[in-house]
Design brief:
14 strands, four-stranded antiparallel β-sheet, alpha/beta, six-stranded mixed β-sheet, about 35% helix
């Protein structure tokens, strides 16, 4: 695993043969602000990404990093001030592409006095679905997001919990059976039960082969869901890659133990270090087989844990390293 910034991994096996769904080249966005609009704030700069069909892609970053700016730029809600991008093989803003997109904003607005069923009927109507197709699609979506038809038909949206609103929001994002789904902080503000439910919905979409692009602060969920991730900080792309490339493989373990014969322990461990009767090293074989052999070696296991860091640890290290480097460069210029 590399801890360097700007880590960019190669596509997964077979990815290069899949169609490119999102491609950006030096994409940037600068806002004008101030009373005379004479001040500039750069929210996104030099962003180059390639996302393939069927990928679940997670965009990570602290508040104000530019995540929502990138997402809204891709959706055509705001226009870039630099670079270019394509969605589904068409340039940004192409109206024919929007029929194939699904979108759940971070803070969606719903019509409070509509029931969930009425809201989905309204959304389906915007895409021109026939009455029969609407009925069939709404039933499918309610089943997917775990909402009962009875509650959807009788309960107004103002009576929904946060988790229920998030699920009906995902349903509306899928009403047109999109090829590409954008989810902006889909787990924000949810309790553990709500987060689990939304995570299961995303995994179900992943199994269907949908391409999913989403922002999140819940890094433990991202680690479970995503094929690849990117980290954005202060408008700059810090790194992009598969989790196995960024974090290392999940089957690497560090072992600590006490006692036993060195000659028997040594074949199992790389970088074996001894301190009195204590030892530790990197396990090269099966952890299950090793643990079973320990008693025969006369050894006692103290700890067995994965070598690779969590995504949260990697994220904090990357952000800290980048900001320390930026501070050093600023100091040297001054």
């Amino acid at each position: 695993m590399s801890s360097m910034s700007n880590v960019v991994s190669s596509p997964a096996s077979g990815a290069a043969e899949r169609p490119v769904v999102i491609e950006t080249q030096d994409l940037g966005k600068t806002y004008r602000t101030g009373f005379w609009l004479n001040q500039r704030i750069t929210s996104l700069q030099h962003c180059s990404l390639t996302i393939y069909q069927g990928e679940t892609f997670g965009l990570l970053g602290p508040n104000g990093a530019g995540k929502t700016t990138l997402l809204k730029t891709l959706l055509g809600i705001i226009r870039p001030t630099a670079g270019q991008a394509q969605l589904l093989g068409r340039p940004l803003g192409d109206h024919t592409v929007k029929q194939r997109l699904g979108y759940l904003p971070e803070n969606p607005y719903f019509y409070d006095f509509l029931t969930g069923w009425e809201f989905l009927q309204y959304t389906a109507g915007l895409f021109g679905l026939s009455a029969a197709a609407r009925q069939r699609r709404i039933v499918e979506l309610l089943d997917l997001v775990g909402l009962s038809q009875t509650a959807a038909k009788k309960k107004q949206l103002r009576q929904y919990s946060k988790g229920m609103l998030q699920r009906i929001g995902i349903a509306q994002a899928l009403v047109n059976d999109p090829d590409l789904v954008f989810l902006d902080e889909p787990m924000s503000g949810l309790d553990p039960t709500g987060r689990f439910q939304v995570r299961e919905i995303i995994l179900a979409l992943k199994r269907e082969g949908k391409t999913i692009f989403f922002n999140s602060h819940i890094l433990s969920d991202v680690e479970v869901i995503c094929d690849r991730v990117a980290i954005l900080d202060q408008g700059n792309l810090v790194c992009v890659g598969h989790l196995s490339d960024l974090l290392g493989t999940a089957d690497e373990y560090q072992v600590k133990g006490r006692g036993g014969q060195f000659s028997q322990i040594d074949p199992w461990l790389d970088n074996l270090t001894l301190q009195g009767d204590l030892w530790h090293g990197h396990l090269t074989g099966s952890p299950y087989a090793f643990v079973q052999q320990l008693s025969q070696m006369g050894s006692e296991l103290i700890s067995l844990q994965q070598s690779r860091p969590s995504l949260e640890e990697f994220f904090m290290a990357q952000i800290s390293q980048r900001r320390a480097q930026a501070s050093s460069e600023k100091g040297s210029r001054s």
